[in-house]
Design a protein that fits this description.
The structure is a single chain. The protein has six helices and ten strands. It has about 200 residues and is α+β, with helices and mostly antiparallel strands. The chain folds into two domains: about 80 residues, VC0467-like (3-Layer(aba) Sandwich); about 90 residues, VC0467-like (3-Layer(aba) Sandwich). Strands 1, 2, 3, 4, 5, 6, 7, 8, 9 and 10 form a ten-stranded mixed β-sheet that branches. Helix 5 packs antiparallel against helix 6. The two termini are about 35 Å apart.
């Protein structure tokens, strides 16, 4: 892959794994307007990520009937992207090894991606209820994912559709996910602090 820059002119690494894609104000696709996407995999075959700031208005108990009315049923569900929304993915801050599948990965410190929800079920049913709210690890569920074919994400970067910043667990598990886009822009600083406050990019003289 060629060395590329994002919409701010920042030089990018070959792989954006472990980075956030932060949508630019001009990105009008309703699936990605004012979104923050955690990139979990990125190589010559394409990219895979999850939108981390779009609550689905649902909980795990709404999505999986067996958790309805149980402590783990209160875990929030998000729209991870427009692709395969009948699939459920999970990000968590760290669980026992027995609760992680061989397919799990850690794209950023303090964030584990788990594509096999069934691996978590014993933990969520038996151990989750034993801990207080403050003692429990951070867990969020995602319906669907965001995917790009070979060269597709690179084309969007060339079109200045995305700002790229290093991902952090703080923003993945942000306490006010609806404000996650603004918080990501503030981390970039400078002009992007103005965008975070106003929602649009000032014109250049």
């Amino acid at each position: 892959m060629q060395l590329r820059t994002d919409s701010s002119g920042q030089a990018l690494p070959e792989s954006l794994e472990g980075h956030f894609l932060v949508s630019e104000t001009e990105l009008s696709d309703p699936n990605f307007k004012q979104t923050v996407v955690l990139i979990i995999n990125h190589n010559d075959e394409g990219a895979f990520g999850l939108v981390v700031n779009r609550p689905a208005g649902l909980t795990l108990g709404d999505v999986i009937e067996e958790y309805e009315g149980r402590p783990a049923g209160e875990i929030r569900a998000f729209v991870g992207g427009p692709v395969e929304q009948h699939y459920l993915f999970t990000l968590h801050s760290g669980l026992p090894d027995s609760s992680q599948s061989p397919y799990s990965s850690q794209p950023v410190d303090g964030v584990v991606f788990e594509p096999v929800f069934q691996t978590l079920q014993t933990y969520l049913s038996e151990e989750w209820p034993l801990g207080s709210h403050n003692e429990r690890p951070m867990v969020a569920c995602y319906l669907g994912y965001s995917g790009w074919g070979p060269g597709q994400l690179e084309s969007e970067l060339d079109e200045d559709a995305w700002l790229v910043i290093p991902a952090t667990a703080e923003l993945v598990f942000y306490s006010r996910p609806e404000d996650g886009w603004n918080a990501a822009l503030r981390k970039k600083g400078g002009l992007y602090e103005i965008i975070a406050k106003t929602g649009f990019k000032p014109s250049m003289n």
